[in-house]
Design brief:
mainly alpha; homodimer; DNA-binding; AcrR family transcriptional regulator (chains A, B); Tetracycline Repressor, domain 2; 233 residues; transcription regulation (chains A, B); Homeodomain-like_sf (chains A, B)
DNA sequence: ACCTGAACACCGTTCAAGT
DNA sequence: ACCTGAACACCGTTCAAGT
């Protein structure tokens, strides 16, 4: 009757390792090195084993399966996000700092974009950020479930902006391409839609990276304004 | 000197198939059937071949690689999204309808959540939606690059809400679990954070599905309010 | 023009066996 | 308690060969 329990590394006792042999920390560190160097597709259990000069399957002693390993590295990423105590700087500044920080952390670890929103974020680092975010929105004046809803709104925005940005970077990075040729092809795909063509002309000579910066800021301000508006009513 | 071109099915000439043999449509239909039934992990080229009672590798005649196939099915998903002409209903209603429609389409094809924001959306259906969205925000009063920024903001929100929702559904679906047991474990993970614990108590007996509905609406209204605010300044 | 099968170079995971 | 290697059941993709 008692169904299988929800699966997360963080919800089960780890193996009480006396200290010898490899450790989870060591494994996670090695995994992140591989991930930063070769991306999510580059991380295999065999390669990780090799990097630790261990048998390919030794890792299964420390971790039930690859997904658990990914949960572990994922929480490390959450640990890199910086968020001031909302009580110190006020909720809007805290929210902005968190947003920019999340974006830059993910851009630094592009593989993490594939985990964002997909993997349960129940590690200590993730929970700490979640907790601060709750306090932030309570400080702002939200109550009850609205604290939650405001939080989802903000993180949804950040995820939704960051994921495509990373995806774009990686497609562009793989095949280095001729920008003019590409513009011509996209223009072709879009040829029946005057508004879309107009858009292409507009942004033709802007630096894509700063455009994305500005876009992120524009949206963030909008989202925060929108949340502020909810407080008034 | 002329680098490799940006890769997308939509940016290259398809094979001019006279008509005999399999067709792309047929392949895409079969692929979607598999995807709906077994999810993204359930779709392999071999299985797809088998379903078409063809050799495992015949598909490579119609498609350069699996990613192209995914681009094709992805655009079908865009085709299911419904969006009224903004001129008919006004920009805010059009935006809301699109948002709800996107959410429900993705919930219907959960595998598509893994493509959202990752795959170039250059198919005719995706472009049509993008075009309407541009017209929508122009109608609202945005100009220049702001039309784009407003669009990114809205889609970022939708992506960022939908992706985790689907992920959650699928983790919950796989292992059917004992809710009490699970709550206990999560409570344990969160034990040092009084605000997080409070949150768990609060939402203890709510139906998760309606909570997510309400959350989606809350955030959407906030985002649209925030965008409206930008028009005023 | 379209399809095939064999082959290559991988995967994650299980498990009996070792120390 | 920790690690190993072999094995299982898969992958996507290439390519020479067939019709």
């Amino acid at each position: 009757m008692t169904g299988k329990q929800f699966a997360s590394v963080w919800l089960r006792e780890p193996r009480k390792t006396a200290s010898p042999g490899r450790s989870r920390d060591e494994i996670v560190r090695a995994a992140i090195e591989i991930l930063d160097a070769e991306g999510l597709g580059g991380l295999s259990m065999r390669k990780l084993g090799a990097k630790l000069s261990a048998g390919a399957t030794s890792i299964y002693w420390y971790v039930a399966h690859k997904d658990e390993l990914l949960e572990l590295v994922y929480d490390q990423v959450w640990g890199e996000m910086s968020m001031p105590e909302p009580e110190d700087v006020g909720w809007r500044d805290a929210a902005s700092v968190l947003a920019y920080s999340m974006r830059s952390v993910i851009l630094r670890h592009p593989w993490a974009a594939d985990l964002l929103g997909r993997m349960p974020a129940l590690g200590p680092n993730a929970i700490q950020v979640a907790d601060r975010m709750r306090r932030m929105f309570k400080l702002a004046g939200f109550e009850g479930m609205d604290v939650d809803y405001a939080g989802s709104t903000l993180t949804a925005y950040i995820y939704g902006m960051t994921i495509p940005e990373v995806a774009w970077n990686s497609t562009m990075g793989e095949h280095e391409y001729d920008p003019d040729e590409m513009r011509a092809m996209v223009a072709r795909a879009v040829r029946d839609f005057p508004d879309m063509l107009e858009r292409m002309d507009m942004s033709a000579y802007d630096d894509p990276q700063t455009v994305r910066q500005v876009a992120f800021d524009f949206g963030l301000v909008s989202v925060l304004d929108g949340l502020e508006r909810r407080l008034a009513t």
